[in-house]
Specification:
Number of helices: 5
Largest sheet: 3 strands, antiparallel
Structural class: alpha+beta
Low-confidence stretches: none
Shape: globular
Strand content: 5-15%
Radius of gyration: 21 Å
Number of strands: 5
Mean pLDDT: 82
Helix content: 25-40%
Distance between the termini: 51 Å
Oligomer: single chain
């Protein structure tokens, strides 16, 4: 230390930025990959991927309709959410200033396209008993996801 109680030298001199991740961040990346590998055969694998890489709220994902997803232009729009009040579910606008359009990476886009195809296959398998909600994220029978169910 210098007499003025300040560092006399730049302690980070010689360290190149952007070359490596800290141990904590590197471990986070490894754990994220392990988690996605673990859930890869789950019906909602793509939902997990979306949460990790786009960061939406669970109520927003529960309410996301296919009409707010554009896989050609690589975006999805958050314009509504599902909230629970006194054990009743309601659709409403997201929290203040939270209506937004999120850009999709090619991988996220491919995941949505894949999920839509699998959802269509389930629609055929379930026939007339399939619940038509128009939502992106549903149970295999088409029923809407409850926000609390997503986080369990």
């Amino acid at each position: 230390m210098c007499p003025s109680h300040r560092l006399c030298e730049q302690p980070a001199r010689g360290i190149q930025r952007g070359k490596c991740l800290s141990r904590g961040k590197q471990r986070g990346v490894e754990l994220t990959g392990q988690f996605l590998d673990f859930v890869k055969d789950d019906w909602l694998h793509e939902l997990c991927h979306t949460f990790i890489f786009l960061g939406p709220r669970r109520g927003e994902m529960a309410a996301l309709p296919w009409t707010e997803v554009n896989t050609d232009a690589l975006w999805l729009r958050i314009s509504q959410q599902i909230v629970e009040v006194a054990y009743q579910l309601y659709g409403e606008a997201p929290k203040a200033d939270s209506v937004r359009t999120l850009p999709l990476s090619l991988e996220s886009n491919d995941n949505l396209i894949s999920f839509r195809a699998r959802q269509e296959q389930k629609r055929q398998e379930w026939g007339d008993t399939y619940a038509e909600t128009g939502r992106v994220w549903t149970h295999e029978n088409g029923e809407a996801l409850h926000p609390d169910w997503i986080s369990r």
